[in-house]
Write a structure and sequence with these properties.
alpha+beta, NADH Oxidase, 5-stranded mixed sheet, two-stranded antiparallel ribbon, 28% helix
Length: 208
């Protein structure tokens, strides 16, 4: 079941309309359809003005909980301070937020969580590929559940240029976003139930 974040005629908001540009149109409902057809569990459109940013979430990255701090071109500190990243986000009007829900054996099932993370990443990249294919001229800002893992070893560690700049991804956490508030603002569930893990992906679009 998709949680559609659209209002009907008479009560339209910024993200409830089809966005027109010089050569193409972005249909928010079509983006939701793409996400669900790519095996996302839930999907919705949200306004970037509703996104909450907190330094604390970026600070968590700096504690290197994921093991990728200062180890990738797409993560902190190389991507810049949170104030700069917020400016990048608010250039876009809206975002497609989607989730993937996965069963794990228990809250200690790290192997299951890593496997679920790989499945989510595959879903995310397929959604992004489909959107880019449908709207090739549209500028997007894709943010996944964690920093890029497309390469086994990031070129950043060898002080070399990114090998796959078109595929590199940063994360919602690195941008200082409150992920729970993000899901709430889009009308999506933020708890999947016992022995589950819920991952999110966000693709911003429609540069204003």
């Amino acid at each position: 079941m998709a949680f559609l974040h659209f209002l009907r005629l008479g009560t339209l908001r910024t993200c409830d309309v089809i966005f027109e540009t010089v050569n193409y149109m972005i249909d928010g409902e079509k983006l939701i359809e793409i996400a669900l057809e790519s095996n996302a569990t839930h999907a919705a459109i949200l306004e970037t003005s509703k996104i909450e940013f907190h330094e604390d979430f970026r600070a968590a990255c700096e504690k290197n909980a994921c093991g990728k701090y200062d180890a990738t071109w797409s993560g902190p500190p190389i991507i810049g301070p949170i104030k700069t990243l917020i400016q990048d986000v608010v250039r876009f009007r809206c975002g497609l937020l989607f989730q993937t829900l996965h069963r794990v054996a228990s809250s200690f099932d790290m192997k299951g969580m890593f496997k679920a993370g790989d499945i989510h990443d595959a879903v995310f990249r397929n959604v992004l590929k489909e959107i880019r294919g449908k709207y090739p001229e549209e500028e997007l800002l894709p943010l996944d559940k964690g920093c890029c893992s497309i390469c086994a070893r990031c070129a950043y560690l060898d002080r070399e240029p990114c090998r796959n700049p078109d595929q590199a991804l940063s994360s919602v956490e690195a941008y200082g976003m409150n992920v729970i508030a993000l899901q709430k603002s889009a009308g999506l569930p933020y708890y999947g139930g016992k022995n589950t893990v819920l991952y999110v992906g966000l693709i911003l679009f429609n540069k204003s």
